[in-house]
Amino acid sequence: MYFVMAAFLAVWFVLVGGRGVALIRQGTAVTVVLGAAALVLPAIGVWFLWMNTRFVTRANRLAGELEAEGGLPVDELRRTPDGRIDRDSADEVFARRRAETEAAPDDWRCWFRLAVAYRDARDTPRARKAMQRAIALHDKRPAAP
What we know:
The chain is an all-alpha fold. It has helices spanning about 1-25, 30-70, 85-105, 110-120, 125-140.
Protein backbone atom coordinates (compact mmCIF):
# COMPACT_ATOMS: atom_id res chain seq x y z
CA MET A 1 0.00 0.00 0.00
CA TYR A 2 2.88 2.34 0.80
CA PHE A 3 4.33 2.02 -2.69
CA VAL A 4 0.91 2.51 -4.30
CA MET A 5 0.49 5.77 -2.40
CA ALA A 6 4.07 6.79 -3.22
CA ALA A 7 3.42 6.18 -6.93
CA PHE A 8 0.18 8.17 -6.73
CA LEU A 9 2.04 11.05 -5.08
CA ALA A 10 4.81 10.93 -7.69
CA VAL A 11 2.22 11.26 -10.47
CA TRP A 12 0.60 14.14 -8.60
CA PHE A 13 4.00 15.84 -8.20
CA VAL A 14 4.59 15.60 -11.96
CA LEU A 15 1.14 16.97 -12.77
CA VAL A 16 1.42 19.90 -10.36
CA GLY A 17 4.98 20.59 -11.51
CA GLY A 18 3.79 20.67 -15.13
CA ARG A 19 1.11 23.18 -14.22
CA GLY A 20 3.71 25.26 -12.40
CA VAL A 21 5.95 25.34 -15.46
CA ALA A 22 2.99 26.24 -17.67
CA LEU A 23 2.10 29.12 -15.35
CA ILE A 24 5.66 30.41 -15.36
CA ARG A 25 5.71 30.33 -19.17
CA GLN A 26 2.69 32.64 -19.22
CA GLY A 27 5.11 35.37 -18.16
CA THR A 28 2.87 37.67 -16.14
CA ALA A 29 3.83 38.57 -12.59
CA VAL A 30 0.86 36.75 -11.08
CA THR A 31 1.31 33.55 -13.08
CA VAL A 32 5.06 33.45 -12.40
CA VAL A 33 4.45 33.73 -8.65
CA LEU A 34 1.70 31.08 -8.77
CA GLY A 35 3.87 28.84 -10.95
CA ALA A 36 6.79 29.13 -8.56
CA ALA A 37 4.50 28.28 -5.64
CA ALA A 38 3.18 25.31 -7.61
CA LEU A 39 6.78 24.08 -8.03
CA VAL A 40 7.64 24.51 -4.35
CA LEU A 41 4.84 22.23 -3.15
CA PRO A 42 5.96 19.18 -5.17
CA ALA A 43 9.57 19.83 -4.12
CA ILE A 44 8.56 19.69 -0.47
CA GLY A 45 6.45 16.62 -1.19
CA VAL A 46 9.33 14.82 -2.92
CA TRP A 47 11.61 15.56 0.03
CA PHE A 48 8.99 14.32 2.51
CA LEU A 49 8.31 11.17 0.48
CA TRP A 50 12.04 10.46 0.16
CA MET A 51 12.63 10.85 3.91
CA ASN A 52 9.70 8.56 4.77
CA THR A 53 10.71 5.94 2.21
CA ARG A 54 14.24 5.96 3.59
CA PHE A 55 12.93 5.60 7.15
CA VAL A 56 10.63 2.70 6.23
CA THR A 57 13.37 0.92 4.31
CA ARG A 58 15.84 1.21 7.19
CA ALA A 59 13.26 0.13 9.79
CA ASN A 60 12.36 -2.90 7.67
CA ARG A 61 16.04 -3.76 7.33
CA LEU A 62 16.37 -3.73 11.13
CA ALA A 63 13.22 -5.84 11.49
CA GLY A 64 14.65 -8.41 9.08
CA GLU A 65 17.95 -8.54 10.94
CA LEU A 66 16.20 -8.85 14.29
CA GLU A 67 13.95 -11.58 12.92
CA ALA A 68 16.98 -13.53 11.69
CA GLU A 69 18.40 -13.32 15.22
CA GLY A 70 15.10 -14.43 16.74
CA GLY A 71 14.80 -11.15 18.61
CA LEU A 72 11.56 -9.69 17.27
CA PRO A 73 9.11 -8.87 20.05
CA VAL A 74 6.48 -11.51 20.58
CA ASP A 75 2.88 -10.32 20.36
CA GLU A 76 1.74 -10.87 23.93
CA LEU A 77 -0.92 -8.19 23.95
CA ARG A 78 -4.48 -8.85 25.01
CA ARG A 79 -7.11 -7.72 22.56
CA THR A 80 -10.64 -6.46 22.91
CA PRO A 81 -13.46 -8.46 21.30
CA ASP A 82 -13.25 -6.26 18.21
CA GLY A 83 -9.51 -6.99 17.84
CA ARG A 84 -8.05 -3.75 19.17
CA ILE A 85 -5.11 -3.80 21.53
CA ASP A 86 -6.09 -3.56 25.20
CA ARG A 87 -4.61 -0.32 26.55
CA ASP A 88 -3.60 -1.78 29.95
CA SER A 89 -1.86 -4.68 28.21
CA ALA A 90 0.05 -2.27 25.96
CA ASP A 91 1.08 -0.22 29.00
CA GLU A 92 2.40 -3.34 30.78
CA VAL A 93 4.49 -4.37 27.78
CA PHE A 94 5.67 -0.80 27.33
CA ALA A 95 6.90 -0.63 30.94
CA ARG A 96 8.97 -3.80 30.40
CA ARG A 97 10.40 -2.51 27.11
CA ARG A 98 11.28 0.83 28.67
CA ALA A 99 13.08 -0.90 31.56
CA GLU A 100 14.93 -3.11 29.06
CA THR A 101 16.03 -0.03 27.09
CA GLU A 102 17.10 1.84 30.22
CA ALA A 103 19.26 -1.16 31.18
CA ALA A 104 20.94 -1.24 27.73
CA PRO A 105 20.64 2.26 26.22
CA ASP A 106 23.21 1.60 23.48
CA ASP A 107 21.51 -1.55 22.12
CA TRP A 108 19.58 -0.84 18.94
CA ARG A 109 17.54 -4.02 19.49
CA CYS A 110 16.09 -2.62 22.72
CA TRP A 111 15.22 0.64 20.99
CA PHE A 112 13.54 -1.25 18.15
CA ARG A 113 11.38 -3.21 20.62
CA LEU A 114 10.63 0.03 22.50
CA ALA A 115 9.47 1.62 19.24
CA VAL A 116 7.08 -1.29 18.70
CA ALA A 117 5.79 -0.88 22.26
CA TYR A 118 5.25 2.84 21.70
CA ARG A 119 3.29 2.09 18.54
CA ASP A 120 1.19 -0.50 20.35
CA ALA A 121 0.48 2.10 23.04
CA ARG A 122 -0.68 4.46 20.23
CA ASP A 123 2.17 6.95 20.71
CA THR A 124 3.30 7.30 17.11
CA PRO A 125 5.62 10.32 17.51
CA ARG A 126 7.63 8.59 20.24
CA ALA A 127 7.56 5.33 18.29
CA ARG A 128 9.14 7.12 15.34
CA LYS A 129 11.79 8.78 17.54
CA ALA A 130 12.65 5.45 19.17
CA MET A 131 12.94 3.79 15.76
CA GLN A 132 15.16 6.62 14.52
CA ARG A 133 17.39 6.05 17.53
CA ALA A 134 17.50 2.31 16.82
CA ILE A 135 18.51 3.02 13.23
CA ALA A 136 21.22 5.48 14.31
CA LEU A 137 22.62 3.04 16.88
CA HIS A 138 22.57 0.22 14.35
CA ASP A 139 24.38 2.36 11.78
CA LYS A 140 26.76 3.61 14.50
CA ARG A 141 25.81 7.24 13.96
CA PRO A 142 25.31 9.78 16.72
CA ALA A 143 21.75 9.52 17.96
CA ALA A 144 19.68 12.39 19.29
CA PRO A 145 18.93 12.03 23.00
